[in-house]
Write a structure and sequence with these properties.
The complex is a heterodimer. Chain A is an alpha+beta fold. Chain A is built from 2 helices and 6 strands, in the order H-E-H-E-E-E-E-E. Chain B has a 9-stranded mixed β-sheet with strand order 1-2-6-5-7-4-8-9-10, with helices on both faces. In chain B, 32% of the residues lie in helices and 18% in strands. Classes of the chains: A alpha+beta, B alpha/beta.
């Protein structure tokens, strides 16, 4: 979707952190992406390489960690884990599920020098 | 997100941090906030044009390798601006709706009809598009106050752009604020603008399975408007199937069937808006 904007968000955080914590370069970064975040990982990896140029994170290795998608089933009222946004409830087979998590997009940590 | 208007990381330092005590609109700028970076241009009627690239900064100096915990949402800056917008709107008891849809669903036509139907209710409009001020011109032709935000290459409005537009528009006390997002069913779902509700507009020519194809937007919306229902008989649209698919992706969604052209369903929509505005004004008065 808007992987370029997300990469710009990452760059903003990197620059803020570099100022606050006084580091010069990021060598590795781990980001957590929820199943329902709508992020295409290949597109984010591409945008990351492009947008980080000239920033402390230029050339940094980007590692993406998948977070599971959870949803509340309106038929059996169970909170369940589903792999795909439109999957039926694994407990009762119901089709009305409201996501309860899995839209995370956050920087977990980074290795800096 | 400031990276969109090109003001770069350093500009955030002078940014507004709304104090604990809420201030009415117009007093906020007196808090030392400088939202006016002027990396954008102002067109006719004060329209704002974004579209500059990010500003880079180099941080020299080396230290030994270490792992630092960040645990920060990638959209945390946007969310911070959205919280500020929400606080300003709360302080003036204004009810803001973020209108989202595909291009061509009839957002602007619906908005013009809504403005005509709401004569006497104070309101203002923020129009988002990649280019042109056509939509803001259409809104201004109705006599309503409107400002166009051009996102340049951007595919969505973000909370920083909306905060800036609000600084220019100065929404009135107890007014309605309509934010017409860029026509796009994907990206605007993730960007909180500080609005009270997202309203998704879906026209009956788009296909019954659209909510299944773009579930994120319909999950994020509180209300879905099935627009152009006057065309339903001409394109074999199954309105019940539209509703079933909307409820499948969002069991809590409210749905209104409407035609901005014939006026069908307009009364229910304006009642929905007025109820939202009343609830918000009461909340503001109670504080």
């Amino acid at each position: 979707m808007h992987e370029m904007s997300l990469a710009e968000g990452i760059r903003g955080i990197v620059e803020d952190q570099a100022r606050q914590r006084g580091f010069g370069r990021v060598t590795r970064m781990r980001v957590e992406i929820g199943r329902f975040a709508g992020v295409q990982k290949e597109a984010l990896a591409f945008a990351f390489d492009v947008v980080m140029r000239g920033s402390p994170a230029e050339g940094a290795a980007l590692e993406m960690i998948d977070l599971p998608g959870r949803a509340l089933c309106f038929d059996c009222a169970h909170e369940v884990e589903i792999a795909d946004r439109l999957d039926p409830c694994p407990d009762c087979g119901g089709g009305k599920l409201l996501p309860q998590g899995g839209d995370e997009m956050r920087i977990k940590d980074m290795e800096v020098i | 997100m400031c990276t969109v208007c090109g003001c770069g990381g350093a500009s955030f330092e002078g940014h507004r941090h709304v104090p604990e005590k809420k201030l009415p609109f117009g007093h906020v700028d007196a808090q030392g906030h400088d939202h006016h970076h002027h990396n954008h241009q102002h067109g006719a009627h004060g329209d704002i044009h974004f579209g500059q690239g990010p500003a880079g900064t180099e941080v020299p100096g080396m230290s030994q390798a270490r792992l630092i915990e960040i645990e920060t949402s990638i959209l945390s800056k946007n969310d911070g601006y959205a919280a500020e917008n929400r606080q300003v709107l709360e302080a003036i008891g204004a009810f803001a709706v973020n209108l989202v849809s595909s291009p061509g669903s009839g957002k602007t036509t619906l908005l013009c009809a809504t403005i005509a139907a709401l004569k006497g209710t104070p309101l203002a409009v923020i129009e988002g598009d990649q280019q042109t001020s056509n939509d803001a011109d259409r809104i201004r032709a109705t006599g309503a106050r409107a400002i166009q935000v051009n996102t340049g290459k951007g595919c969505h409005l973000d909370a920083h752009m909306v905060g800036h537009a609000m600084d220019h528009l100065h929404p009135a006390l107890h007014s309605l604020l309509f934010i017409e997002n860029v026509g796009n069913l994907v990206c605007p779902a993730a960007f909180d603008l500080g609005e009270d509700a997202k309203v998704a507009i879906l026209s009956v020519t788009e296909g019954e399975d659209k909510p299944l194809k773009y579930p994120d937007m319909f999950t994020a919306a509180r209300l879905a408007i099935l627009n152009k229902v006057d065309l339903a008989p001409h394109c074999d649209a199954d309105l019940d199937a539209y509703e079933a698919n909307l409820r499948r992706v969002n069991p809590k969604i409210e749905i209104l069937r409407l035609s901005a052209k014939t006026g069908e369903g307009m009364a229910a929509w304006t009642e929905w808006l007025k109820a939202g505005l009343q609830a918000k004004s009461r909340r503001e008065a109670a504080e």
